[in-house]
């Protein structure tokens, strides 16, 4: 059922929203470009695809494992400090990756350092800031705008990274990406508008008008989430999303070459994913503002099942690859505003960075399996066919497990007492 008219955003909310979108645009844009480096890095260092895939897998796993703790730090000390520290780690990882000469260096730089940097500049941190300054009715839509920033970054950065790779080689191209990533510091400071609002609201003795009542303590919020079946179903579904998009982002360029399609198609396919998801993330997130996010998620995963089956069953060609990229790209990050807004709706926005960080951990476990598992299966079987079929099956399962999710807000202990 459609929701009533939505309230307008004030100046603080708009500032935080723009800053969050810019951070995500840069962070996710650079991250999605790593796949174009697989072939030249593997060839120069004399390693298998599994090694490069494991570095990206480690990056994603570490990104997820520390995300709940990063969320707690952001909830406690504010998002700006977290974004600045994350940017420093991100840039350092890229700079040292450009000079690595062995697999260990690749794991430490592109895997560990960049993984830590991503955790500090991620959706978890910035959506927590946005969630505290926008009204509940606008959250899915606003989260979708931030998510679209990640898609814009993918559209802008991936083809650019491919062009830099072609012009300067992979080492100099990574250094240029490090320069791009360093600009996140400039936008991170504006995110503390949400924290300033919280302090003003606390001084006035009343909650922020954009923040309804929620758990009164982190331990209470964690207890409520732990006892919620819907929370764990959301987490499992999000894990499937992580598996899918990380496998595609890491291995699609190599897959395109394997099936005899020109390399430029892979770069433009990744860029097309980002371009289509600029519109897709906003449209899907807006649908979450009008209809139940749970139901929209069911449709998203069902569509992904069909798209993956199509790319597996149809003869490979530039048209098929680009059509798949456009269709799958429309749903690429659409799960993020829907999943995060469900967490905020059920548990309140106060500890959104922490709780969504836990859900995001599941996403990154799936991402680890998608990046490393894709390389492992290829080295074992000589093709990606089994991984594509696994993606289709998991997507169908994800659609089914979202059906029983309840989106009713929890009744907090404090509210029960009154």
TrEMBL record:
Residues 13-410 form the Major facilitator superfamily (MFS) profile domain. It comes from the Bacteria. It comes from Tistrella bauzanensis. The lineage of its organism: Bacteria, Pseudomonadati, Pseudomonadota, Alphaproteobacteria, Geminicoccales. InterPro entries: MFS (IPR011701), MFS_dom (IPR020846), MFS_trans_sf (IPR036259), Proton-linked_MCT (IPR050327). This is MFS transporter. Pfam families: MFS_1. The keyword Membrane applies. The chain crosses the membrane at residues 51-70, 82-101, 107-130, 142-162, 174-191, 231-249, 261-284, 296-314, 320-343, 355-374, 386-405. Keywords: Membrane, Transmembrane, Transmembrane helix.
């Amino acid at each position: 059922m459609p929701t009533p008219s939505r309230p307008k955003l004030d100046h603080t909310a708009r500032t935080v929203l723009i800053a969050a979108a810019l951070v995500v645009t840069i962070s996710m844009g650079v991250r999605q470009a790593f796949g174009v480096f697989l072939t030249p890095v593997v060839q120069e260092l004399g390693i298998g695809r599994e090694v490069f895939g494991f570095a990206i897998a480690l990056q994603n796993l570490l990104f997820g494992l520390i995300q709940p703790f990063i969320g707690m730090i952001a909830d406690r000390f504010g998002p700006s400090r977290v974004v600045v520290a994350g940017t420093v780690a991100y840039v350092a990882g890229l700079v040292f990756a450009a000079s690595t000469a062995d697999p260990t260096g690749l794991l430490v730089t592109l895997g560990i350092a960049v993984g830590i940097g991503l955790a500090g500049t991620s959706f978890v941190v910035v959506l927590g800031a946005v969630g505290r300054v926008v009204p509940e009715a606008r959250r899915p839509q606003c989260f979708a705008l931030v998510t679209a920033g990640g898609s814009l970054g993918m559209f802008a950065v991936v083809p650019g990274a491919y062009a830099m790779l072609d012009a300067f080689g992979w080492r100099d191209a990574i250094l240029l990406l490090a320069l791009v990533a360093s600009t996140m510091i400039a936008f991170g400071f504006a995110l503390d508008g949400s924290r300033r609002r919280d302090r003003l609201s606390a001084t006035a003795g009343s909650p922020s008008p954009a923040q309804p009542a929620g758990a009164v303590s982190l331990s209470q919020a964690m207890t409520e989430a732990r006892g919620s079946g819907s929370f764990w179903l959301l987490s499992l579904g999000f894990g499937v999303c992580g598996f899918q998009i990380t496998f595609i982002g890491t291995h699609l360029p190599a897959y395109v070459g394997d099936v005899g399609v020109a390399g430029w198609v892979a770069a433009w396919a990744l860029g097309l994913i980002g371009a289509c998801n600029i519109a897709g993330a906003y449209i899907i997130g807006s649908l979450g503002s009008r209809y139940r996010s749970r139901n929209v998620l069911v449709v998203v995963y069902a569509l992904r099942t069909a798209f993956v089956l199509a790319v597996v069953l149809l003869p490979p060609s530039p048209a098929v690859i680009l059509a798949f990229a456009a269709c799958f790209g429309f749903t690429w990050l659409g799960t993020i505003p829907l999943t995060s807004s469900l967490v905020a709706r059920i548990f309140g926005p106060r500890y959104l960075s922490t709780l969504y960080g836990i859900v995001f951990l599941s996403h990154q476990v799936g991402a680890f399996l998608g990046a490393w598992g894709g390389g492992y299966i290829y080295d074992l079987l000589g093709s990606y066919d089994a991984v594509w079929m696994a993606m289709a099956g998991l997507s169908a399962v994800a659609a089914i497990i979202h059906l029983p999710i309840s989106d009713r807000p929890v009744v907090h202990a404090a509210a029960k007492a009154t």
